[in-house]
Design a protein that fits this description.
Belongs to the flagella basal body rod proteins family. This is Flagellar basal-body rod protein FlgG. It is found in: Bacterial flagellum basal body. Keywords: Bacterial flagellum, Cell projection, Cilium, Flagellum. This protein is an alpha+beta fold. It has 2 domains: 100 residues, no CATH class; 135 residues, no CATH class. It has 2 helices and 19 strands. A hairpin with a 5-residue loop joins β2 and β3. The relative contact order is 0.21.
Length: 267
């Protein structure tokens, strides 16, 4: 009986976490470069149930041998194993703002590979983002809207000295007669990246390999890849599953109440 409580409760907790991930996706449906989280549910390890008994052997002194009769497997609930981002390319939206950059994946050598802008967080560490909603700070450096420096191919902050600069489709920033390659990084498995907030990802990435193609569009942004309608449908399904587990938990609670109040009184 108590195992039923745990199974229903684990189902409710799992659906609650799924709801949180889906709600966060919908809240970021208009965030440039945002990658939708996909919660994955996994069952706890199955247990093999066996009936314990004895078998009497007709001997002079009598002999009882322990026996085990397999009943079958039993599962004890589910849990959210992880939330992993969907790195599918988002739609490109033109903004006409010169500091906005959209990174468009072309032909990549790995199905799970992806490209990123390289930035520097507040601790001076390299991080990666698909959000090209950039600006220029008071010192003339190209930064994200959160103030993180956008890095060049050599890992240095990019000095533009103003809002007037051009970016080629090959990812080269041209300003004051200089050509500065943007720090475009590549990873063969984007699923190994972890979200850190503010559109930043933490992981291992290197130079774009030979044969990989991409383009950078100035005056445009990559939109979020969240499908708001699909996310709303998934939220409704998750809510119904939560309610189902809630009703199961209530039924177990009522059964336990009867066992305590009625069966105990008869004893």
């Amino acid at each position: 009986m108590l195992r039923g409580f745990y199974t229903a409760a684990s189902g409710m907790l799992s659906q609650q976490r799924a709801q949180e991930a889906l709600s966060n996706n919908i809240a970021n449906a208009n965030t440039p470069g945002y990658k939708a989280d996909q919660p994955t549910l996994r069952a706890f390890p199955e247990m093999l149930m066996q009936q314990m008994g004895e078998k009497k052997i007709p001997t002079t002194h009598g002999l009882n041998l322990p026996v085990q009769n397999p009943i079958g497997s039993m599962n004890s609930g589910v849990y959210v194993q992880e939330d992993f981002p969907n790195f599918k390319q988002g739609d490109i939206r033109e903004t006409g703002i010169g500091t906005d950059l959209a990174l468009v994946n072309g032909q990549l050598p790995d199905e799970t590979g992806s490209l990123f802008f390289t930035v520097q967080n507040e601790d001076g560490e390299e991080r990666f983002t698909r959000n090209g909603d950039f600006t220029v700070d008071g010192e003339g450096f190209l930064t994200t809207n959160q103030g993180y420096y956008v890095l060049d191919q050599a890992g240095n902050p990019i000095q533009t000295n103003g809002m007037e600069f051009d970016v080629t489709q090959e990812g080269e920033l041209q300003v004051n007669g200089q050509t500065i390659p943007l720090g475009i990084a590549y990873t063969a498995n984007a699923n190994d990246f972890a979200k850190e907030g503010n559109g930043l990802f933490n992981g291992e990435a290197g130079a774009v390999p030979v044969g990989a193609t991409f383009s950078v569009q100035q005056g445009a942004l990559e939109r979020s890849n969240v499908n708001a309608l699909q996310s709303m449908t998934q939220m409704m399904e998750s809510y119904r599953m939560f309610e189902t587990n809630q009703r199961v938990l209530k039924a177990y609670d009522e059964s336990m109440g009867k066992a305590v109040s009625e069966i105990g009184r008869l004893g």
